[in-house]
Amino acid sequence: MTALDTLPPWLMALVAFFLVLGSTLTLLGAFGLFHLKSFYDRIHAPTLGTSWGTAGILLASLLAWSWVQDRVFVHELVIGICVMVTTPVTLMFLGRAALHRDRAAGTGAVPDSGTAPVQEPSASVSD
To answer: Which of 45-49, 50-54, 57-61, 113-117 has the lowest mean pLDDT?
Structure first.
């Protein structure tokens, strides 16, 4: 008999729900990373899988072990917060770096910077 056998059924169902949710989101993120065609499409899928997938799994672990140990596991909250903050920011930086690289290389598949070029006023010819 393990310590996890002492969990009540309602808590087991909640832990199972968060595990399935987190695992499903992580699987969707991996599926999107594998199947999407361009780099710009691919950078969105891991954000979902890593952020919310990790959060679901960490919530399940937090609930189970907090019940078994009779104390709250704060380090799991810190891990979850760090992952949920750093993953989208990191992928945003990767996307901006790739966009800058592709614009500098003149790749036609990326949009322009969105700023209109400044045109100098033409000199008027006086008669």
So the answer is: 113-117
H helical segments located in 3-119: 9-35, 39-42, 45-69, 74-105
Dihedral, 23, 52, 67, 82 alpha carbons, nearest 10: 130
Query: In this structure, which amino acid lies at residue 28?
Result: L
Query: Are 49 and 29 spatial neighbours (Cβ–Cβ below 8 Å)?
Result: yes
Cα 40 to the center of its chain, rounded Å: 14
Q: 110 or 79: whose pLDDT is higher? A: 79
Could you tell me the sign of the dihedral formed by the alpha carbons of 72, 73, 79, 84, in that order?
negative
Mean pLDDT, residues 68-72: 80
Residue 108 C-alpha from the chain's centroid? 27
The count of other CB atoms within 10 Å of the CB of residue 41 is 12
CB of 13 within 8 A of CB of 21? Answer: no
Q: How big is the CA angle at 72 (ends 66 and 74), to the nearest 5 degrees?
A: 125
User: Region 2-27: what's the mean pLDDT?
Assistant: 89
78, 57, 74, 55: which is closest to 66 by C-alpha?
Answer: 74
